Amino acid sequence: MSEQAIPEEEVRQQRSRLIDHFKRAYQIIVGLAITLACGKLFAHGTIELSDPALLLFCTFFITVVPIFHGGDRSLDLKYLGEKPSSGWNQLAYIWDVYMLLITAIFFVKIAQAIPGPGIGFLDNSGTATAGHFYDWMAAMLFFDASVLFIDGVKSALLGSRAWTRLQVYVTWILLNVALGILCLAIPQTTWSPEAVGIVVFLAAFVRTVLDYIAGSKFMFP
User: Fold this and answer.
1) CA distance 147 to 154
2) Which of 79, 172, 189, 196 lies at a C-alpha separation of 20 to 30 Å from 17?
3) Pick from 215, 124, 129, 139: nearest CA to 180
4) Containing structural domain, residue 183
5) Rg of the chain over CA atoms, in angstroms?
6) How far apart are the first and last CA of the chain?
7) Total-model pTM
8) Which among 50-59, 110-119, 120-129, 191-200 has the top mean pLDDT?
9) For 138, what's the count of Cα atoms within 13 Å in the CB-facing half-sphere?
10) Nearest in space to 145 (alpha carbons), one of 91, 99, 77
């Protein structure tokens, strides 16, 4: 039976299953990242509110949610309503899938960089143990900003019907770059590691709030 003879609803269901297949892989890796972060935070079964691991975990967690949400929704907006029929559109779909999976791997690395409970922000030599956390946070944010930029250009050139909804990418790119620069710059100041952690968390919180405000139509169908 040719695809033209298949009822539109069945075609849409097949396309939805194709999208869901890759979404599950994305969800598994992000779930692994959150599990790793929880393992760092609750390694001893309990956590003290003053533990630096809690602050870094909160920064990680509040940043993961909107980026995961946006990546998940982007596949629906771009591919659920229209078939990626041309070679370029199919290549764009594969590209999007790989970029989502790589972003999820960044989340795993951020989670691994959270210091274990009781370690504190500084080791015995006075070196900041949270340095890798901020580096991986910045790397993920810059990578995501690059993906958003390429995806926006790609969707515009390919004439995607979702393009008008994707213009929120401009705001997200600016938010990601701003927080990424902060993650790289502020640990180099003379501020205490605790103050740095608080400022980065507050910035991540503001970024998430602005993310959802700017992308409310994109995020919630």
Assistant:
1) 10
2) 172
3) 139
4) 3-219
5) 20
6) 33
7) 0.84
8) 191-200
9) 16
10) 99
